[in-house]
Design a protein that fits this description.
Strand order of the largest sheet: 2-6-5-4-3
Largest sheet: 5 strands, antiparallel
Strand content: 25-35%
Length: 128
């Protein structure tokens, strides 16, 4: 009897641990402090993306598409920007368990790191 109970508990815990691999999709809307030109914003976003191994493709004024491929996982984002703000939005993915506005937690780590790198580059431009 005790063995069955122990096995049931282990199975339940293992099932819950698997659920922790996903989290709500993190879309970022970031106001910026300072005065930047469209070119400075585009440059900061593209350089930050390249540093983080994203393929950044400007597609229109104020819009950059990003694609990250790592170990069989692919994330596609859209970065919209103006001189006073930028946003990073999820577009699509492959092999990242995306469903019902949830995605593998690695995606959120990737866009959080990208966001931080963009902010660092914008700060560095203020010093120039």
């Amino acid at each position: 009897m005790k063995n069955r109970y122990l096995i049931a508990v282990i199975v339940a815990v293992a099932s819950l641990a698997g659920c922790a691999r996903t989290a709500p999709i993190n879309n970022i809307d970031q106001p910026v402090v300072g005065h930047y030109s469209d070119n400075q914003m585009r440059q900061a976003i593209v350089e930050a993306g390249i540093t983080r191994h994203w393929v950044m493709t400007p597609v229109a004024p104020g819009v950059i598409n990003g694609r990250l491929a790592q170990r069989g996982h692919v994330a596609n984002i859209r970065v919209d920007y103006t001189p006073s703000r930028y946003s990073i939005h999820y577009v699509s993915s492959e092999n990242l368990l995306a469903a019902d506005n949830e995605i593998h937690r690695n995606y959120n780590n990737w866009v959080t790191a990208l966001n931080q790198d963009i902010q660092v580059r914008l700060s560095a431009q203020q010093l120039k």
